[in-house]
Amino acid sequence: MDALITAFGMVFDPGTVLVMLGASLFGLFVGAVPGLTATMATALLVPVTFFMPPITAIAAIVTATAMAIFSGDIPGCLLRMPGTPASAAYADEAYAMTRKGQAELALGASLVFSAIGGLFGTAVLILSAPALAEFALRFSSFEYFWLVLLGLTCAIVITAERPLKGVVSLLLGLLVACVGLGNPAGFPRFTFGSTELMGGIGMIPMMIGMFAVSEILRYAADTGAKLEVATQPIGNVLRGMWELTKRYPVQILRGSTLGTLVGALPGAGADIAAWMSYAISKKMSKEPEKFGTGHVEGIVESGAANNSALAGAWIPALVFGIPGDSITAIVIGVLYMKNMNPGPTLFTQNPQNIYAVFLLFIIANLIMIPLGFLCIKVAKRILRVPRELLMPVILLFCIVGTFAINNTPFDVGVMLAAGVVAYVLERNGFPIAPAILGVVLGGMLEENFITSMIKSDGQLAGFFARPVAATLGVLTLAAWFLPPVVRRLRRIAGA
Questions:
Q1: Which of 38, 205, 344, 442 has the most CB atoms around its CB within 10 Å?
Q2: CB 422 within 8 A of CB 439
Q3: Which one, of 40, 90, 91, lies nearest residue 65 by Cα?
């Protein structure tokens, strides 16, 4: 009890409260600007945390990342340019709602259910951190291989109406992931003697290029066409949220649960959770034909998965010092810097610090609603800005954001090239979302496959030798083969 009271005192210290408000505004801005990401927001905060007490430093990171993950939905909804990779999963869906005059509903769903998902993940973090972290540690390369493959399969499920083109796009992304030295053998592949390519092609420049620059190119190429920009006023985005909650309780719970579980797996994160959640939502929906046309159901479920994964990623980070995603990898460095070494002793020797972290997550998700509401009110003005002015400004932000990743012009070139490729692909009916997912997961897939083959002495049966691996393997194979089998049986029955 004394530790909890101490935690309250640390969290509600005036200095900590002011830092949380400032970090919240910073996170909202970074997430809402295409080209900047939640990971970048965290990295930019690290130098500032040098001068802060431990809990204040953690407060800045927790609030900034939570806000950035949500606000990444805003440009995705208004301009079809996701602010974060996790928002890319349903950016097309949200933008379709905007074109239908439902931007208010889409933004409200993103805001409210992101907060609900974050609170759900926090509850799991509080109640089940040790047990879930121990379960995640039991995952070997076999389980990770099937998990990644299931994530890649979801990319094809999303493009079920044109699966062949989805497969081609995915293979292109996997090819990009092969570039560099980041493979199990450490052998340079597809580098063509370039030192810049030795480190591979970054996912963030690719994402910015394929989603943002391609949109700019599309605008430049279609100057003669009338732009379909939503002009309806965005009023109270919270209106109708209770009705959505009553209509989709299963989807909210499913997205929050999936996000938390995926986030708790080291190496996974909000990106995988969002893609998987959107695909599952479409597959399990009673109205799958509405997906892609501006249907709020997928946004409700994926939005909840986004922020619940953020809390879930802290489970292995706090308990065992294993990062759940790139954000918690930075956080672990900050924890060590502040002498809050992650591990089981963190729960026993300094319980007030852990209680404080839990409180920070709760507060961050609660203040997300009023601050997010204000952010949406400001962001809606983007709709009133002429595209002739908006597009150059967005391109400038994209260039600055891309350059800031590694401070190299090479990443800017990657971004521009990816934009051109994405534009050509979309003009010919190829979806670009699977390509992004292939870039994100390609390296992880190869590494876990090679490791598993070495462990099993080249025997494929080893991939099904463990119960969890066998379950994931069956689910993945079912996702591959069950739909064509069902279609075949229906064809036979119809004949």
A1: 38
A2: no
A3: 40
DSSP state of 324: S
Distances (CA, A) of 462 to 105, 144, 426: 48, 13, 40
Q: How big is the chain, counted in residues?
A: 495
**Tokens representing 398?**
């994209």
DSSP-derived letter for residue 183 is S
By residue range, what is the domain housing residue 83? 2-494
- Share above pLDDT 90 across residues of the chain, in percent, rounded to a whole number: 1
The model's pTM = 0.64
pLDDT tens digits along 402-459: 787 677 888 888 888 988 998 898 888 787 767 777 776 787 788 888 888 888 888 8
Structure tokens at 479: 């996702």
What element of type H or E holds 60? Answer: helix 54-71
- Which residues have C-beta within 8 Å of that of residue 399, sequence separation ≥ 6? 35, 412, 415
Measuring CA to CA, which residue among 285, 354, 289 is closest to residue 127?
354
**Cα–Cα distance list, 61 to 23, 360, 401, 440 (Å):** 7, 10, 19, 23
pLDDT tens digits for 281-330? 888 888 777 787 778 888 888 888 888 888 888 877 777 666 666 677 77
SS3 266: coil
- 188 by DSSP, 3-state: which? coil
> 233 near 384, Cβ under 8 Å?
no
CB 269 within 8 A of CB 317: no
End-to-end CA distance of the chain: 70
> What is the spatial distance between Cα 429 and Cα 476, in angstroms, rounded to a whole number?
26
Structurally, the chain folds into a number of domains equal to 1
Answer for the pair 334, 342: CB distance below 8 angstroms, yes or no: no
